[in-house]
Each structure stands twice: as structure tokens, then as C-alpha cells.
Design a protein that fits this description.
mainly alpha, two-stranded antiparallel ribbon, 12 helices
Length: about 325
């Protein structure tokens, strides 16, 4: 009878360990729903499929007549939207008070507004995609955080229970060899659970990022994921505060400093700039922060467009 009783004690120890080990894996199926993104927009139907010149100096030189009324950034926006002719005609209109001139000016203004509306729509579309993706990653990160917290709690409780059971077992088991075996087994199980709670990564999730806007920024490459107009605004130095580095470069430098401690090797190897892979909690939180930062940069583009519209209204006077 003692042998069966002793075996039951050993069995309990094994079942406790297996129970908590299996509990760690029970949400694996739920994590699989995060693999594909529901934030990917429909096929881009932008009106700005044409190429935009990257030679800012030549554009500014060709439009020197506009410089008294417009900033360099506004002139470059006109060129990118292909409304130079309309703006020149508005500025050079000799008599803007006649009925004929007013009708023509309103027509030109409407044409310009239509192009600006399309540009703003493209900015809003990209911003909405980033907002959606940021929220999605936040939800996944919170799920993984909660799973990790639950795992640690369960392993801690299991370790305590195993310690208590092993103490009782050493009292109940009279066979010295078996007693030693139970003590050793409990020690091994307890140590295993202890190491599990020290795991710095914990739960993980596989995410497919074949469309990865962070990758576009990091590699400075755009294969129609971002509209040509928005990409131009992000990659032309004249649209940044310094006028020397692009918004894209500034964003990348902030990521390198704040997310990767200026470790370029670590950044280049990050799953966040890949086309998909295994994400741990730290990766997910870093991804969420970088998405939110990029969204802010995209929204800031509208400041230059608003400046252009303000200068255009002045030109009507």
C-alpha cells in the first residue's frame, strides 16, 4: 500500500508540472488570429501616379516669379500637384475685380482645390492605415503581456505547491531511496519552473508583414505602398524644419536612438523591418511606438499644405 501511496505522490508532482506547462500553450490558437492584418487598404487609386521631379533647385528656378508671394515649400507643392499654370495665372491676372476675371479665378481656384483635396485624401488614407495598424498591434501586445503575466503567476504558484507537496512526501514516504528520488524530482521541477519565470521573452506571436510601412521608412524604398505625392513630401528636405534632412531621415534617426539605443546592427536585424516573423512582447511595443511616430509625421505634412493654401488666398487679394 505504501508503494501505491508513494506513486500517487510522484504522480501528483508530475501532473502539477504538466498542467502548468500546458496552460502556457492554451492561447496559441488565439494568437494565430493576429497573423494577417485587417488594416491593409484597397488597391491604390490615386490620381498622382506620375513621377515627381526630385530636383528642387530646378523647380524653384523655373518659378522665381512666384517667390514674392509663396514660400519654397509651397512652390514645390504646386509643382508636385501640377497646378503651377493655374497659380501663375492667378498671380498675373491684371484685373481681378472684373466679372470675367472673378469667374475665371473661381474656376482656377476650384481646379486647385480639387488637386489639394486629392492630396489631403491620400495623407488621410495613409494616416488611417497607420492608426488602424497601431491599434491592432497594441491589442496583440496587451494580449501577449497578459499571457506572460498569467504564465509567471501560474509557474510561481506551481513552484510553491511542488515545494509543499515534496515536503509532505518526504514525511509520508518511509523508503529512503524513494524519498530521495521524490526530493530530487521535486527539486528539478521547482528549478524548471523557476527558470521559466525568468524567461525574458515569454509568449510570442507570428505576424505577416508583407506590407510593412516601417520597412519602407527604414530602407527608404517605396514600391507603391505609399502614394507618390506623400512619398515626395516625406523625402524632399525642403519640407522639414531644417531644410537639410528629410522627414523620413529624421524619423529613422529617432527610431534608431529611442528604440534601438543607436545600435544599427540590432535595428537592421529587427523583425519590425522584415516582411514577417516571430514577435515577442518587446518587439510588439516597439512596433506600436514606431507606427504612432510615423503617423504623426504623415499628419504633419498637412502643415505645409495649409501654408500653401494661406499664401494662395493672399494671392487672390
Amino acid at each position: 500500500m505504501k508503494i501505491f501511496s508513494n506513486l500517487r505522490v510522484i504522480g501528483c508532482l508530475s501532473l502539477i508540472f504538466l498542467n502548468f506547462s500546458c496552460a502556457v500553450q492554451k492561447n496559441t490558437t488565439l494568437l494565430s488570429i493576429a497573423k494577417e492584418s485587417y488594416c491593409i487598404p484597397p488597391q491604390n487609386t490615386t490620381d498622382f501616379r506620375y513621377g515627381i521631379t526630385n530636383n528642387a533647385d530646378s523647380v524653384l528656378k523655373a518659378n522665381t516669379a512666384l517667390k514674392p508671394k509663396f514660400s519654397e515649400a509651397s512652390i514645390l507643392i504646386m509643382n508636385a500637384l501640377r497646378i503651377n499654370d493655374e497659380v501663375h495665372e492667378i498671380v498675373n491676372k491684371p484685373n481681378k475685380k472684373s466679372l470675367e476675371s472673378m469667374v475665371r479665378l473661381n474656376t482656377l481656384k476650384q481646379q486647385i482645390d480639387n488637386r489639394v483635396w486629392i492630396a489631403n485624401s491620400e495623407i488621410d488614407a495613409l494616416s488611417a492605415e497607420l492608426d488602424c495598424e497601431g491599434e491592432r498591434i497594441d491589442q496583440i501586445a496587451n494580449f501577449v503581456d497578459n499571457a506572460n503575466s498569467s504564465k509567471t503567476t501560474k509557474f510561481t504558484v506551481a513552484s510553491i505547491v511542488i515545494g509543499a507537496v515534496s515536503s509532505i512526501a518526504t514525511v509520508l514516504i518511509s523508503n529512503e531511496s524513494l524519498n530521495n528520488g521524490v526530493a530530487i524530482g521535486a527539486g528539478v521541477l521547482g528549478a524548471s519552473l523557476g527558470f521559466a519565470t525568468l524567461n525574458p521573452k515569454g509568449k510570442k506571436v507570428e505576424i505577416n508583414t508583407s506590407r510593412n510601412l516601417l520597412r519602407n521608412v527604414w530602407l527608404n524604398q517605396n514600391e507603391h505602398e505609399i502614394s507618390s505625392f506623400v512619398w515626395y513630401m516625406l523625402t524632399e528636405p525642403k519640407f522639414s524644419n531644417s531644410g537639410k534632412t528629410t522627414l523620413l531621415q529624421n524619423t529613422k534617426e529617432r527610431w534608431l536612438m529611442y528604440q534601438f539605443d543607436e545600435n544599427m546592427t540590432k535595428a537592421n536585424q529587427s523583425v519590425n523591418f522584415s516582411k514577417g516573423g516571430i514577435y515577442f512582447a518587446d518587439d510588439l511595443h516597439a512596433r506600436s511606438q514606431m507606427i504612432n511616430q510615423f503617423q504623426s509625421v504623415v499628419r504633419s505634412i498637412k502643415q505645409n499644405i495649409n501654408l500653401f493654401l494661406a499664401e494662395l488666398n493672399t494671392a487672390f487679394d
